[in-house]
Predict the 3D structure of the following.
Amino acid sequence: MPFVVTDSCILCKYTTCVDVCPMNCFREGPHFLVIAPDECIDCSLCVSECPVNAIFCDTDLPADQRHFMQINAKLAARPEWKPITQTKAPLAEHNKWRSAFEKLTLLDEHFLKLAI
């Protein structure tokens, strides 16, 4: 049962979660992070580290976020999405986006084709 990064991370990309991951499962893209599902050991350490509550166990995903299981898996497998193991600064406009919902539609068309 891997954990999944959801919509809340998009355009914020807080990275405090990566410091606690014992398996280095996080992958970094230009707009948010994903978790490589085949590497996640279900430890849940990352969940409490996320300041926007973007990380869920796949069995606890809200219905409107279930598509992020596929998004995480597909993007984590892409070679340009590299592992991230240390905290970095969040995206420049993270405060503007941290309370926004349904942010997947804000990503460019090329990115959406890769993800879905």
